[in-house]
Structures are given as C-alpha cells and as structure tokens.
Write a structure and sequence with these properties.
Blueprint: H1 13-21, H2 29-46, E1 49-52, E2 54-59, H3 85-98, E3 102-107, H4 115-128, E4 133-137, H5 143-152, E5 156-158, H6 166-172, H7 179-192, E6 195-202, H8 209-222, E7 226-231, H9 248-261, H10 271-276, H11 280-286, E8 291-292, H12 322-331, E9 335-337
Parallel strand pairs: 1-8, 1-9, 2-3, 3-4, 4-5, 5-6, 6-7
Helix pairs in contact: 1-8, 2-9, 3-4, 4-5, 5-7
The protein binds S-adenosylmethionine (SAM).
Length: 349
C-alpha cells in the first residue's frame, strides 16, 4: 500500500517504519516523491537559502569512551591536540573574513577546557564578533555550566542524542554514560534559552528501524531547532571496526522525512554524508537540508580530529574554499547566504 505523505504528521509508528524502509533506492518514484515534497517544504520555509557554519574542532581529547568514535579515550592511536584561545579566535577571524557568521566550537569532552576557559573564549568571541552566532558542541555538562556559557554569550548548542532507545544506547556506550543524562542535558539547554540541536547517526551498529522511529518520537518531544544526522562510518581503532557503515540512501531518506516532520528546522547536509559519497552533500541539500558546516579548524590539526575513517576536511569541506562550496550549492539549485541563519520561529508541534 502506498503511504499518503500528506498525513505524515499523523503516521503511526508502523507507518513511519514502512516509510523509512519503503525502499532504499533513491531513484524510485516514491523516493523521488518524498524528496520533492521535502524540498518543497524546505523552500516554503527557507527559500533557497543555505546557511554556513564554520566548524572549529577545539580538542581531540575526550574523557568518554563511546564505542563508535575514533577520539574515544581508549584509542591509544589517536592524535591528541587542543587549540589555544588565540588559535580559536584567529580561526573565527579567518571565518569572519570569509563570510561566516556562525562559529561552531566542537570537541571531545576535554576536562582541560574548564568552565572558566570556555566562558573566557565565548565572552571574548561575543565581543569581537558581535553579529555572529556562537555555537558550542562540547558534550554533557551540568545545568550550571550550560547557564554560565549562555550568560557568557553562547547562543546555540549541538548535542546529538545519538539514539533514543535505552537498550540501543547501552550497546553503543560504556556504563559510565547514560541516555537519561544526555536527554536531561538537552532539556536543560532548551530551558536556559539556547537554540538546541540534536540528532543521531544513521546505520550505527545494532540500529533497527524501530530505533529510528524512537529517534523521531524523541525529536517530536524535544522540538529541537537543529537536527543533525549523518551516516555512521567505521573507525578501525574502535570495538566496531568490523561493522558496516550507514548508507547514503537511508541518510538522505531520513533527511526528507525529518524535513516533512520538522518544516522549521535547520538541518545540515553533513560532512559524514559528504565523506561516504562525493555526491552525498548535494543529495542531502536536495532532500531537504539547508545548512553546511565547512571546516575552519587550523589546517595543521584537521587530520587529527578523526572521529571516523576517511573524514573529509579538504576541498569543498574546507572553509577557506568557499568558492567550491558556493559552486556546489548553486549547482544543486540553492544559494549560500551570509547571515547568522537563525531558526525560523514558527515551530510545529
Ligand atoms: N563531544 C561532543 C558530543 O558528545 O556531542 C561533540 C563531539 S562528538 C565527536 C560529535 C558527533 O560525532 C557525535 O555526536 C556523533 O554522532 C558523531 N560521531 C562520532 N563517531 C562517529 C562515527 N564513527 N561515524 C559518524 N559519526 C560519528
């Protein structure tokens, strides 16, 4: 039976499951219909705008041991670095000159980045780049810490929930971590006033379609401003070295489903999607994504932030190659805009 996409907001779990699994061939008629509808909804809310975020990977040290991640603390082969305040600010400076108006400071959970240091970096950036959004993505913290960063001038926070299913979460993380705390963090961030981004990997080890339905249900509860998804990609120095990667097709299909369910959301076409296929990022944009996050990390550190195998950081993934990026976005039928790219206010419930 063909699903009626006009009714997607009222779909049962079974119908969502059927939609996710419908078929994985992005060239099929129904997949194309899904994509065209998602693109229409995206154009109704955001026109052809594509927002850029300059991604600064501030530290590859991490105290956590997520089984899927290349910078997990147990990986003795990982190259570790941490940027200084000056390096972070000069990356922002470069980004500003290139036309970036959002800086995403992302890193492993590095205890050396104390709250005082984070607040110092955020407050200095807030003054120096007053027309820019400052986004943090530095993991799970207390309410008080998140509040301090916010008061220092941070506007947005990215924290993927990774999986909304407790049993699946347990298979991906050690006992020292919990889904309950991750969710607590997301609701704390919302309460404080951040624009909040969550999301998950597509095709992570042991993931079932039911898990993806749970992810959608959790996002409907959270109502995040940003939703970041990308394919899971193996890293050889993790316990999941022999697992399969997620697929471009399923990731692109999930982007379209999320666009239909969350018309207002900022949805990136991620580096991971661009890593598993040279056309991945373009197809992500055509499927409903409206954000791209090129790499602004100082070039000498980029290869060390290896969260998965073969992570792209050169060419059009490099923030300095803005021309290549603009050309790619325009070829896909959209336009790069120089603005903070805040979420549009009307959220669906
Ligand atoms: N420490 C912060 C946090 O926990 O949110 C930010 C850094 S963390 C490395 C950023 C994201 O990378 C994670 O949320 C996860 O979804 C993604 N990631 C980690 N390992 C990955 C892999 N093997 N394939 C694809 N994405 C991965």
């Amino acid at each position: 039976m063909k699903l009626d996409l006009d009714k997607i907001n009222a779909f049962s779990d079974e119908e969502l499951k059927e939609l996710i699994e419908y078929d994985n061939n992005i060239k099929s008629d129904f997949s194309e219909e899904l994509r065209i509808r998602a693109d229409k909804v995206r154009r109704e809310h955001y026109g052809t705008d594509v927002y850029l975020r300059g991604l600064i990977e501030i530290s590859s040290y991490c105290k956590n041991d997520c089984y899927y991640c290349g910078i997990r603390c147990s990986n003795r082969n990982a190259d570790r670095y941490r940027l200084t305040k000056d390096e972070i600010l000069s990356a922002c400076e470069n980004g500003y000159e290139l036309g970036y108006r959002t800086f995403v400071m992302q890193g492993g959970e590095d205890p050396n980045f104390t709250d005082d240091i984070i607040c110092d970096i955020v407050s200095t950036s807030r003054v120096r780049f007053e027309d820019c959004a400052i986004t943090l993505s530095i993991g799970e913290k207390s309410y008080e810490s998140y509040k301090r960063y916010y008061d220092a001038g941070a506007n947005r926070f990215l924290l993927r929930h990774e999986t909304a299913d407790d049993a699946h979460y347990r298979k991906l993380h050690p006992d020292s971590m919990s889904l309950e705390n991750r969710k607590r963090c997301l609701f704390d961030l919302k309460e404080i006033g951040y624009q909040v981004g969550s999301g998950f990997m597509v095709g992570s080890p042991y993931q079932t379609t039911d898990n993806l339905v749970s992810d959608i249900r959790f996002l409907q509860e959270l109502e995040p401003d940003m939703i970041g998804i990308g394919p899971y990609i193996c890293h050889k120095d993790t316990p999941f070295a022999d697992c399969d990667n997620g697929t471009m097709e399923r990731t692109v299909r999930m982007i379209s489903i999320l666009r239909l369910l969350f018309p207002y959301a900022l949805i990136p076409s991620t580096t991971a999607l661009g890593t598993i296929s040279p056309v991945g990022r373009e197809l992500g944009l055509k499927a409903g994504a409206n954000v791209v996050m090129p790499n602004l990390t100082p070039a000498e550190y980029r290869s060390s932030y290896a969260i998965y195998e073969g992570k792209a950081y050169a060419g059009k993934e490099a923030a300095e190659n803005r021309d290549l990026l603009v050309a790619e976005v325009e070829a896909a039928g959209y336009n790069v805009v120089t603005s903070r790219g805040d979420v549009k206010s009307e959220q669906c419930t």
